[in-house]
Amino acid sequence: MIVAFEGWNDAGDAASTAVEHLQLSWDATSVGELNPDDYYDFQVTRPTINVVDGVSRSLEWATTTLSTSSPEGLDQQVVFVKGPEPNFRWRAFCADLLERAEQFGVAKVVTLGALLADTAHTRPIPVTGSAHETAALDRSNIDRSKYQGPTGITGVFHDACVQAGIPAVSLWAAVPHYVSHPPCPKATLALLRTLEDVVDVEIPMGTLPEQAEEWQRTVSELAEDDEEVSEYVRSLEERGDEQRGLEETSGEQLAADFQRYLRRRRPGPGQST
């Protein structure tokens, strides 16, 4: 089960866009939704009315949707969960989702999130994670999250999964706070590339790499027009480079990364290299 919630947990819409990308790439089929009356305040999360052909109107209610897919390269079905962060009854909301997870026989849950951070848009988007056990992060070479503080429904659902005995991994992309307006394709791409290691399957990226490059070029051009912003970006670059220590990846890590790459892209039956 791959989960993302819009709102507080979704800086730059990076996480929800990642799930939408997967749904489209893996041809997901809708299988239901949670009752929105149970979890949403419609004065906060208002329904949307649409004019169709200039005459007819349709009304769309914000809700949490579920869809499924059977991606090539995986011997398991994937369940996608996406919707706005609920306004109330979070524990009941999580219990509802866990019931759906049980119905689908979910063996692992991956939650995706994005937060605003002091990181430079010109550097790789940091992705950190937490899991039900440290070995799960070590196997996927994910930097461990050090965050402690207020959390959203993503963190609450992750904890509910662990408490229910379902292995869960939570991935968070750090979106540069000075360019928080969505979309942020570079953060979406970073989440998906990290997710590849977690689920150990190749994810079609489509045009996301080109979108990420264009996003970075556009932000850089805007920053160059403002000396104060340019100086701030340089300070973030220096701070980030210092924290990373500019250390080269060890030979063992390179070999492990290459093996994961080959495993995900190994041809299946009937395919040629």
Automatic annotation (TrEMBL):
SUPFAM superfamilies documented for this protein: Cgl1923-like (SSF159659)
Signal peptide interval: none
Protein name (database record): PAC2 family protein
The organism of origin for this protein: Haloechinothrix aidingensis
Compositionally biased intervals (Basic and acidic residues): 234-247
Region (Disordered) residue spans: 234-273
